[in-house]
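Progress narrative, work stream C.
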Amino acid sequence: RATTAGTTRTLSISSYSTSHAKGYTCTVSATPLSTYPVILATVPVIPPPSQVEGVVLSGSGTSLTVSWNAVIVPMYMILYIVRYSTDRGTETEPPSDAMMRSGIRATSTTLTGLQSGTTYNVWVAAEILGAGVQGNYSMRMPNPGP
Protein backbone atom coordinates (compact mmCIF):
# COMPACT_ATOMS: atom_id res chain seq x y z
CA ARG A 1 0.00 0.00 0.00
CA ALA A 2 1.35 3.43 -0.87
CA THR A 3 2.05 5.87 1.94
CA THR A 4 0.83 9.42 1.42
CA ALA A 5 2.87 12.44 2.46
CA GLY A 6 2.50 13.26 6.14
CA THR A 7 1.38 9.76 7.11
CA THR A 8 3.09 8.26 10.15
CA ARG A 9 3.68 4.52 10.32
CA THR A 10 4.76 2.70 13.48
CA LEU A 11 7.41 0.01 13.07
CA SER A 12 9.10 -2.26 15.54
CA ILE A 13 12.87 -2.62 15.32
CA SER A 14 13.73 -6.29 15.02
CA SER A 15 17.51 -6.04 14.83
CA TYR A 16 20.39 -3.69 14.27
CA SER A 17 24.06 -3.91 13.51
CA THR A 18 26.89 -1.42 13.51
CA SER A 19 30.15 -1.12 11.67
CA HIS A 20 32.79 1.25 12.96
CA ALA A 21 35.43 0.25 10.42
CA LYS A 22 34.48 2.05 7.20
CA GLY A 23 32.31 5.07 6.64
CA TYR A 24 31.02 5.27 10.21
CA THR A 25 27.64 3.77 9.43
CA CYS A 26 24.97 2.19 11.53
CA THR A 27 22.47 0.01 9.67
CA VAL A 28 19.01 -0.43 11.15
CA SER A 29 16.50 -2.98 9.85
CA ALA A 30 12.83 -2.54 10.66
CA THR A 31 9.96 -5.02 10.42
CA PRO A 32 6.54 -3.58 9.61
CA LEU A 33 3.66 -4.19 11.98
CA SER A 34 1.27 -4.60 9.04
CA THR A 35 1.69 -5.02 5.29
CA TYR A 36 4.00 -2.05 4.75
CA PRO A 37 7.41 -2.68 3.18
CA VAL A 38 10.53 -3.14 5.28
CA ILE A 39 12.48 0.07 5.72
CA LEU A 40 16.25 0.11 5.73
CA ALA A 41 17.96 3.22 7.09
CA THR A 42 21.66 3.99 7.22
CA VAL A 43 22.65 6.51 9.86
CA PRO A 44 26.25 7.63 10.23
CA VAL A 45 27.95 7.02 13.55
CA ILE A 46 29.51 10.28 14.73
CA PRO A 47 32.64 10.01 16.87
CA PRO A 48 33.14 12.50 19.71
CA PRO A 49 35.54 15.40 19.13
CA SER A 50 39.06 14.80 20.43
CA GLN A 51 41.78 17.01 21.90
CA VAL A 52 39.33 19.34 23.66
CA GLU A 53 41.36 22.12 25.26
CA GLY A 54 40.63 25.43 26.93
CA VAL A 55 42.48 28.70 27.41
CA VAL A 56 41.33 31.36 29.87
CA LEU A 57 41.53 34.74 28.19
CA SER A 58 43.68 37.30 29.96
CA GLY A 59 42.11 40.11 31.93
CA SER A 60 39.10 39.45 34.10
CA GLY A 61 39.08 35.66 33.64
CA THR A 62 35.39 35.65 32.65
CA SER A 63 35.99 34.17 29.17
CA LEU A 64 37.20 30.73 28.13
CA THR A 65 38.19 29.77 24.59
CA VAL A 66 37.56 26.08 23.90
CA SER A 67 39.00 24.26 20.88
CA TRP A 68 38.89 20.69 19.57
CA ASN A 69 39.86 18.54 16.57
CA ALA A 70 37.38 18.43 13.70
CA VAL A 71 35.10 15.44 13.35
CA ILE A 72 34.98 14.11 9.80
CA VAL A 73 31.94 12.20 8.54
CA PRO A 74 32.21 11.86 4.74
CA MET A 75 29.46 13.62 2.74
CA TYR A 76 27.96 15.40 5.79
CA MET A 77 28.32 18.91 7.20
CA ILE A 78 29.18 18.80 10.89
CA LEU A 79 28.13 21.32 13.53
CA TYR A 80 29.24 21.27 17.15
CA ILE A 81 27.48 21.54 20.50
CA VAL A 82 29.36 22.82 23.54
CA ARG A 83 27.91 22.25 27.02
CA TYR A 84 29.49 23.79 30.11
CA SER A 85 28.71 23.82 33.80
CA THR A 86 30.22 24.29 37.25
CA ASP A 87 28.80 20.81 38.05
CA ARG A 88 31.02 17.89 37.10
CA GLY A 89 28.37 15.71 35.42
CA THR A 90 30.04 12.48 34.33
CA GLU A 91 33.21 11.95 32.37
CA THR A 92 31.28 11.81 29.06
CA GLU A 93 27.89 13.39 29.86
CA PRO A 94 27.13 16.92 31.02
CA PRO A 95 24.52 17.52 33.72
CA SER A 96 21.03 18.14 32.30
CA ASP A 97 21.08 21.79 33.39
CA ALA A 98 24.43 22.59 31.73
CA MET A 99 24.56 25.72 29.59
CA MET A 100 24.64 25.01 25.85
CA ARG A 101 25.91 26.61 22.67
CA SER A 102 24.88 24.82 19.50
CA GLY A 103 25.17 25.28 15.75
CA ILE A 104 28.91 25.99 15.97
CA ARG A 105 30.60 25.50 12.59
CA ALA A 106 34.20 26.18 13.68
CA THR A 107 36.41 23.97 15.87
CA SER A 108 36.60 26.57 18.62
CA THR A 109 34.33 28.94 20.48
CA THR A 110 34.68 31.48 23.27
CA LEU A 111 32.42 31.14 26.29
CA THR A 112 31.80 34.55 27.85
CA GLY A 113 30.08 35.86 30.96
CA LEU A 114 31.69 33.25 33.20
CA GLN A 115 32.33 33.86 36.88
CA SER A 116 35.99 34.66 37.54
CA GLY A 117 37.83 32.11 39.69
CA THR A 118 35.22 29.40 39.05
CA THR A 119 36.01 26.04 37.45
CA TYR A 120 33.79 25.20 34.49
CA ASN A 121 33.59 21.71 33.03
CA VAL A 122 33.18 21.52 29.25
CA TRP A 123 31.89 18.80 26.89
CA VAL A 124 31.77 18.94 23.08
CA ALA A 125 29.66 16.85 20.69
CA ALA A 126 29.29 16.81 16.91
CA GLU A 127 26.01 16.68 15.04
CA ILE A 128 25.02 16.35 11.40
CA LEU A 129 23.47 19.53 10.01
CA GLY A 130 19.73 19.09 9.45
CA ALA A 131 19.64 15.37 10.26
CA GLY A 132 18.94 15.45 13.99
CA VAL A 133 21.80 13.02 14.56
CA GLN A 134 24.20 13.82 17.40
CA GLY A 135 27.30 11.91 18.45
CA ASN A 136 28.52 11.26 21.96
CA TYR A 137 30.12 13.98 24.02
CA SER A 138 33.88 14.25 24.35
CA MET A 139 35.58 13.51 27.64
CA ARG A 140 34.92 16.23 30.22
CA MET A 141 37.48 19.04 30.15
CA PRO A 142 37.85 21.12 33.31
CA ASN A 143 39.04 24.62 32.48
CA PRO A 144 42.62 25.45 33.42
CA GLY A 145 41.51 27.98 36.04
CA PRO A 146 42.30 31.66 36.45
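Work stream C, second folded protein:
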Amino acid sequence: MIMLLKLVCFLVIQAIVQPLIQIGVLNRRNETSKVTAELMLSYAKEKFEGNINLSLETYDNNPLGLYDAVCRLADKGVMVVISWGSSGIVIREADILSQLHIPLISISASSPGLKSSSRNYLLRLAPSDSHQAEVIFDILRHYNWTR
Protein backbone atom coordinates (compact mmCIF):
# COMPACT_ATOMS: atom_id res chain seq x y z
CA MET A 1 0.00 0.00 0.00
CA ILE A 2 2.85 2.37 0.79
CA MET A 3 4.40 1.65 -2.61
CA LEU A 4 1.09 2.47 -4.32
CA LEU A 5 0.88 5.77 -2.43
CA LYS A 6 4.46 6.62 -3.40
CA LEU A 7 3.71 5.78 -7.02
CA VAL A 8 0.58 7.95 -7.09
CA CYS A 9 2.49 10.86 -5.49
CA PHE A 10 5.30 10.40 -8.01
CA LEU A 11 2.87 10.49 -10.94
CA VAL A 12 1.02 13.53 -9.59
CA ILE A 13 4.31 15.43 -9.17
CA GLN A 14 5.42 14.37 -12.64
CA ALA A 15 2.08 15.51 -14.08
CA ILE A 16 2.72 18.97 -12.60
CA VAL A 17 6.29 19.11 -13.92
CA GLN A 18 5.57 17.36 -17.21
CA PRO A 19 2.00 17.61 -18.51
CA LEU A 20 2.46 14.41 -20.55
CA ILE A 21 2.82 11.23 -18.47
CA GLN A 22 4.67 8.37 -20.20
CA ILE A 23 3.50 4.85 -19.25
CA GLY A 24 4.94 1.67 -20.73
CA VAL A 25 3.26 -1.71 -21.13
CA LEU A 26 5.32 -4.90 -21.51
CA ASN A 27 3.79 -7.81 -23.37
CA ARG A 28 5.38 -11.09 -24.46
CA ARG A 29 4.83 -12.10 -28.06
CA ASN A 30 1.97 -14.61 -28.49
CA GLU A 31 0.52 -13.68 -25.10
CA THR A 32 -3.28 -13.52 -25.06
CA SER A 33 -3.23 -10.33 -22.98
CA LYS A 34 -2.05 -8.33 -26.01
CA VAL A 35 -5.66 -7.64 -26.97
CA THR A 36 -6.39 -6.48 -23.42
CA ALA A 37 -3.33 -4.22 -23.46
CA GLU A 38 -4.33 -2.67 -26.77
CA LEU A 39 -7.88 -2.04 -25.49
CA MET A 40 -6.47 -0.46 -22.33
CA LEU A 41 -4.20 1.77 -24.39
CA SER A 42 -7.01 3.05 -26.58
CA TYR A 43 -9.34 3.55 -23.58
CA ALA A 44 -6.70 5.46 -21.60
CA LYS A 45 -5.82 7.69 -24.56
CA GLU A 46 -9.51 8.52 -25.01
CA LYS A 47 -10.15 9.22 -21.32
CA PHE A 48 -7.03 11.23 -20.53
CA GLU A 49 -7.28 13.34 -23.69
CA GLY A 50 -3.60 13.69 -24.45
CA ASN A 51 -2.26 13.95 -20.88
CA ILE A 52 -0.98 10.41 -20.98
CA ASN A 53 1.10 8.51 -23.52
CA LEU A 54 0.99 4.72 -23.35
CA SER A 55 3.60 2.70 -25.19
CA LEU A 56 3.08 -1.01 -25.80
CA GLU A 57 6.29 -3.00 -26.26
CA THR A 58 5.94 -6.62 -27.37
CA TYR A 59 9.00 -8.81 -26.97
CA ASP A 60 10.15 -12.35 -27.78
CA ASN A 61 10.22 -14.73 -24.83
CA ASN A 62 13.97 -14.58 -24.21
CA PRO A 63 16.23 -12.37 -22.09
CA LEU A 64 17.54 -10.35 -25.04
CA GLY A 65 14.00 -9.61 -26.24
CA LEU A 66 13.05 -8.40 -22.76
CA TYR A 67 16.17 -6.21 -22.45
CA ASP A 68 15.47 -4.66 -25.86
CA ALA A 69 11.83 -3.92 -24.94
CA VAL A 70 12.84 -2.32 -21.62
CA CYS A 71 15.50 -0.23 -23.37
CA ARG A 72 12.93 0.98 -25.92
CA LEU A 73 10.58 1.99 -23.09
CA ALA A 74 13.40 3.73 -21.18
CA ASP A 75 14.37 5.62 -24.36
CA LYS A 76 10.76 6.86 -24.58
CA GLY A 77 11.09 8.22 -21.02
CA VAL A 78 8.42 6.07 -19.38
CA MET A 79 7.73 6.81 -15.72
CA VAL A 80 6.09 3.49 -14.91
CA VAL A 81 5.62 0.11 -16.65
CA ILE A 82 2.62 -2.23 -16.47
CA SER A 83 2.95 -5.99 -16.96
CA TRP A 84 0.52 -8.90 -17.24
CA GLY A 85 3.27 -11.50 -17.03
CA SER A 86 3.34 -14.51 -14.77
CA SER A 87 5.51 -14.47 -11.63
CA GLY A 88 8.56 -15.93 -13.41
CA ILE A 89 8.40 -13.28 -16.11
CA VAL A 90 7.72 -10.43 -13.70
CA ILE A 91 10.79 -11.39 -11.66
CA ARG A 92 12.99 -10.81 -14.72
CA GLU A 93 11.14 -7.62 -15.69
CA ALA A 94 11.34 -6.24 -12.14
CA ASP A 95 15.03 -7.04 -11.80
CA ILE A 96 15.81 -4.99 -14.91
CA LEU A 97 13.43 -2.11 -14.22
CA SER A 98 14.47 -1.79 -10.55
CA GLN A 99 18.04 -1.17 -11.67
CA LEU A 100 16.74 1.66 -13.85
CA HIS A 101 14.56 3.02 -10.98
CA ILE A 102 11.41 2.58 -13.08
CA PRO A 103 8.37 1.28 -11.15
CA LEU A 104 6.73 -1.91 -12.44
CA ILE A 105 3.04 -2.59 -11.77
CA SER A 106 2.32 -6.30 -12.01
CA ILE A 107 -1.32 -7.17 -12.65
CA SER A 108 -1.24 -10.92 -12.05
CA ALA A 109 2.05 -12.16 -10.54
CA SER A 110 1.47 -13.78 -7.14
CA SER A 111 4.61 -15.73 -6.18
CA PRO A 112 5.97 -15.10 -2.66
CA GLY A 113 9.41 -15.07 -4.31
CA LEU A 114 8.68 -11.65 -5.82
CA LYS A 115 9.31 -9.97 -2.48
CA SER A 116 12.95 -8.97 -2.45
CA SER A 117 14.99 -6.00 -1.32
CA SER A 118 16.42 -5.77 -4.85
CA ARG A 119 12.93 -5.20 -6.31
CA ASN A 120 12.04 -1.96 -4.54
CA TYR A 121 10.25 -0.69 -7.63
CA LEU A 122 7.80 -3.60 -7.96
CA LEU A 123 4.14 -3.13 -7.09
CA ARG A 124 1.96 -6.18 -7.50
CA LEU A 125 -1.80 -5.98 -7.51
CA ALA A 126 -2.48 -9.71 -6.98
CA PRO A 127 -2.09 -11.03 -3.43
CA SER A 128 0.77 -13.38 -2.67
CA ASP A 129 0.11 -17.12 -3.01
CA SER A 130 1.17 -17.55 0.62
CA HIS A 131 -1.47 -15.02 1.72
CA GLN A 132 -4.09 -16.83 -0.33
CA ALA A 133 -3.10 -20.14 1.29
CA GLU A 134 -3.43 -18.61 4.78
CA VAL A 135 -6.93 -17.36 3.97
CA ILE A 136 -7.99 -20.79 2.65
CA PHE A 137 -6.62 -22.45 5.79
CA ASP A 138 -8.47 -19.93 8.01
CA ILE A 139 -11.75 -20.66 6.19
CA LEU A 140 -11.26 -24.43 6.57
CA ARG A 141 -10.50 -24.02 10.28
CA HIS A 142 -13.40 -21.59 10.85
CA TYR A 143 -15.96 -24.00 9.40
CA ASN A 144 -14.20 -27.00 10.94
CA TRP A 145 -13.89 -28.67 7.54
CA THR A 146 -11.59 -31.67 7.73
CA ARG A 147 -12.38 -33.46 4.48
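The first helix runs from residue 2 to 17. No further action is required on this item.
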